[in-house]
From TrEMBL:
It comes from Salix dunnii. The lineage of its organism: Eukaryota, Viridiplantae, Streptophyta, Embryophyta, Tracheophyta. Residues 676-719, 731-837 are annotated as: Disordered. HEAT repeats lie at residues 402-440. This is Protein kinase domain-containing protein. InterPro entries: ARM-like (IPR011989), ARM-type_fold (IPR016024), CIK-Related_Protein (IPR051177), HEAT_type_2 (IPR021133), Kinase-like_dom_sf (IPR011009), Prot_kinase_dom (IPR000719). Residues 37-320 form the Protein kinase domain. Residues 731-746, 795-822 have a biased composition (Low complexity). One of its GO terms (molecular function) is protein kinase activity.
Length: 837
């Protein structure tokens, strides 16, 4: 402003030198470029802050201690806008005693640090000119707080919850006063309701240090006032000796005498709900709780030497022993507790939190709990309490206060924490954004797929029902499907079963190419040939629920042949589901036939929607897989027959499919052994074959990107049913036994394309027209190679082959004319199929 004034004066002096006529034509425009933070109004306050105060000053609170004004404020540092509190005091005379006392309060607040004393951040002193007089303003910036009287009105607590919260607050103020009196040998001098403020976490803190002074009782030569600014204290808050200015008696009293009296005044104001008007009102004890009455009277003893030390008040008072105080105290010293104490405490905490004041739980306990979990001092049961408290928050508050902690916990190496996260993922999974799941959460969750614990593998599998919709196609195709391919040959039958069900439910999130490469191979070659009957049932349910993704050619050549075989399955439930699947897919083929006859050329390339009655089977199975027993919302189709009893839709054996929790795995295995007693034992399901791309002719450019379902043999069966075993054995028996006479020469002269048949009088009439053996390993679709005839089995030559899909290519290089690269590791060369491979 001084520069602008000088410039204007210079211009005016030049104008005066011009003639009077020319002066009228002079027009001066002054443009001043200045920064907002450099502009200070007369009061020293601006819209964006003070020159030496990088904070914005907001609206004041209705009340504050003494002559101070308590403002809301925000920080200008780094543009974060974090909230603060700003206390200001203005005087018109630089020699005013209020200014000296305020400077004392700033100095004391800056140097005294304690968890229950207001935290100091910044201070400045600004001098402004008002006409001919100047005005001095002191600013103190602290952590964000609000006056206790205002917070009490806002909370509106009553009854037991009010008493518990007051007990917690008085406990904190008593600690602060004890620290000043006993440890620092300081006297606050004006403990009352106005000198207490409350933080956003509902902690009470002591401030108003203008009167604070050292206790010099050991100085026998001191004669003057011990409290230099005692005139700032209201007369109603002064004990008798201070009201009489009896400094000799004060110096002979203990250091806590004055502040113990002040704490008694605070207790009266709290429970009476009124500001203390005069000292005589302290005699009215009607509002004081009975458990606190005796200590209250000792704090207000007329004899200073007999007043109760605040440290003793904390140790002996029955009033401070309640659930809220004990719970918060336990959380604050959590690192000192052993694992047994922590485990017991956190298991009780969810129920205990319901009995405590809701606002205190959300603003005080919840941050403490989140911090303890984040830094590893809390046990895994604490996560249950965190989610229970988080359920009381709004969606926005949950995303800010709870989700960041949960995301960090996914990187924990504590297996108990990981299990607890997965068990409760349905409570917070919907709140996770797709970006957070794909970039931060999934990589940690995926480690559970390969964990040695069957429970953790199972929970990881089940969590994908919530997380898969939020994953990118790159993550699903490049990572998730590889893990699911391995889990479909897991040693635990329940995990294999649930992998099939999961695939059926997340099929909607796969792109078209991935679905064609994965689904049929996963459901037919793996699931339908599993030794565990519920796994075979799950494969049938998955096929029916995803029938809209298959074209009619795939249904006719790859699905129906594999499903029909299960109509003679040893398990009755599998047979029932197989018949339902056959009916559904035959209906699709029939619809295609009708459309083709009607001239609809698009029928072959478009899938036909699945039938709701059968699709509901997959949804029912998935709804029973939840931990808490409530149906999952991710089931693909609504149930058309959900009103039927479960017993009418499932057999005893298949009902075990729905039991997912680890304690039930043993039960599932026992029932599976009963099923296996009725059929041959197939090869181990833990083979490393993938789900395959041979059948579809779909290839990927890099082998490292394959999802694990490659190179599967569509003709290979893990083990056929007993009926098929008899058929295959009949097909492999020779037609006639070799004659004892050596005929090696005659046989060696026959062409390789003919088959030697020896007939006798009991020979089969169909033996002479048996089909010759193929020259190569390839053969047309559904054509069985018959090598020899059996005298005892007249149907050997025309026995129906097991279900096949399509012929294997001549070249082993996937139709590209290149020889296939040799596979590493042991390979199975003995096939149970009749394809000759």
């Amino acid at each position: 402003m001084a520069i602008v004034t000088a410039v204007c004066a210079n211009i005016w002096s030049r104008c005066l030198k011009l003639p009077m006529v020319e002066r009228k034509n002079v027009k001066v425009v002054i443009v001043v470029d200045s920064k907002e933070e450099d502009i200070v109004d007369d009061s020293g306050v601006s819209g964006t802050g003070l020159k030496d105060l990088p904070y914005n000053i907001g609206d004041p609170y209705p009340s504050a201690w003494g002559s101070w004004t308590h403002h809301r404020g925000t920080s200008c540092k780094d543009g974060d806008g974090s909230p603060v509190s700003i206390f200001s005091l203005s005087v018109s005379n630089a020699q005013d005693a209020l200014l000296a006392a305020a400077r004392n309060g700033v100095k004391r607040l800056r140097t005294v640090r304690h968890p229950n004393i207001l935290s100091f951040l910044h201070s400045t002193e600004v001098e402004s000119v008002e006409g001919s007089s100047s005005r001095v303003t002191i600013y103190i910036v602290t952590e964000p707080v609000m006056p206790l009287s205002e917070k009490i009105k806002e909370l509106g607590l009553e009854g037991t919850q009010r008493d518990e919260y007051y007990a917690w607050g008085l406990n904190q103020i008593a600690k602060a006063v004890s620290f000043l009196n006993n440890d620092c040998k300081l006297v606050h001098g004006n403990v009352c309701l106005a000198s207490v403020v409350v933080t956003p976490t509902l902690d009470w803190k002591l401030h108003a240090f203008d009167v604070l002074s050292e206790f010099d009782g050991n100085n026998g030569n001191a004669t003057g006032p011990m409290l230099q600014y005692e005139w700032l204290i209201g007369s109603q808050y002064k004990p008798m000796e201070l009201a009489k200015s009896d400094w000799v008696a004060i110096r002979k009293s203990p250091p806590w005498a004055i502040d113990s009296w002040g704490l008694g005044c605070l207790i009266y104001e709290l429970f009476s709900g009124m500001k203390l008007g005069k000292t005589e009102e302290l005699r009215d004890t009607a509002s004081i709780p009975k458990s606190l009455l005796q200590d209250y009277q000792r704090l207000l003893s007329s004899m200073p030497s007999r007043r109760m030390n605040t440290a003793k008040l904390l140790e002996n008072s029955e009033y401070f022993q309640n659930k809220l105080v004990d719970t918060i105290h336990f959380m604050e010293i959590l690192t000192l507790k052993d694992s047994v104490e922590k485990d017991t405490f956190f298991r009780k905490l969810p129920n205990l939190a319901e009995q405590l004041p809701r606002q205190i739980v959300l603003k005080k306990l919840l941050p403490l709990l989140a911090s303890a979990l984040e830094f590893g001092s809390a046990a895994s049961p604490a996560l249950n309490a965190l989610l229970k408290m988080g359920s009381w928050l709004s969606a926005e508050e949950f995303s800010v206060k709870v989700l960041p902690t949960i995301v960090k916990l996914f990187s924990s190496n504590d297996r108990a924490i990981r299990v607890s996260l997965l068990q409760h993922i349905d409570q917070y999974g919907e709140s996770l954004s797709a970006q957070v799941v794909d970039e931060q959460v999934y990589s940690h969750v995926a480690t559970g797929f390969s964990d040695t614990s069957a429970l953790l593998r199972e929970l990881t599998l089940k969590s994908m029902l919530v997380l898969a919709p939020k994953l990118s196609q790159r993550t699903i195709s490049g990572s998730l499907l590889k893990y699911l391919s391995k889990l479909q040959v897991d040693e635990e039958p329940a995990i294999r079963t649930n992998t099939t069900i999961l695939l059926g439910n997340i099929a909607i999130y796969l792109n078209e190419g991935t679905r064609k490469r994965v689904l049929i191979n996963a459901f037919t070659v793996r699931a339908l040939r599993d030794t565990f009957s519920p796994a075979r049932g799950a494969g049938l349910m998955a096929l029916c629920a995803t029938s809209s993704y298959y074209d009619v050619t795939e249904i006719a050549t790859r699905i129906l042949p594999n499903v029909v075989v299960l109509t003679i399955d040893p398990d009755s439930d599998v047979r029932s589901k197989s018949f339902q699947a056959v009916e559904q897919f035959l209906q699709i083929v029939k619809q295609y036939h009708e459309k083709t006859n009607a001239g609809d050329t698009t029928a072959a390339s478009t899938g036909i929607s699945s039938i709701p009655a059968n699709a509901s089977l997959l949804g029912w199975a998935m709804s029973s897989l939840t931990i808490k027993g409530k149906p999952l919302e991710q089931a693909p189709l609504a149930s058309a027959n959900s009103g039927l009893p479960l017993s009418s839709r499932t057999s005893n054996a298949s009902s075990e499919i729905v039991v997912m929790d680890s304690p039930s795995i043993a039960a599932v295995q026992i029932n599976s052994s009963m099923d296996l007693a009725d059929q041959p034992v197939p090869e181990s399901p833990t083979s490393t074959d993938g789900w395959g791309e041979i059948e579809n002719g779909i290839h990927e450019e890099q082998g490292s990107d394959k999802d694990g379902w490659d190179d599967i043999e569509p003709f290979e069966e893990s083990k056929p049913s007993p009926a098929l075993v008899n058929i295959q054995a009949a097909q492999k028996r020779p037609v006639a036994q070799p004659v004892p006479q050596p005929k090696a020469q005659a046989t060696s002269l026959r062409p390789k394309s003919t088959v030697k048949v020896t007939k006798d009088e009991d020979d089969d009439l169909w033996g002479s027209i048996a089909a010759p053996a193929p020259k190569t390993t390839t053969r047309p679709l559904n054509v069985k190679s018959a090598t020899t005839l059996d005298d005892d089995d007249p149907w050997a030559a025309i026995a129906a082959p097991p279900p096949t899909t399509r012929a294997r290519p001549l070249a082993a290089g996937r139709g590209r004319g290149k020889p296939a690269a040799p596979k590493l590791g042991a390979q199975r060369i003995n096939r149970t199929s009749s394809s000759g491979m």
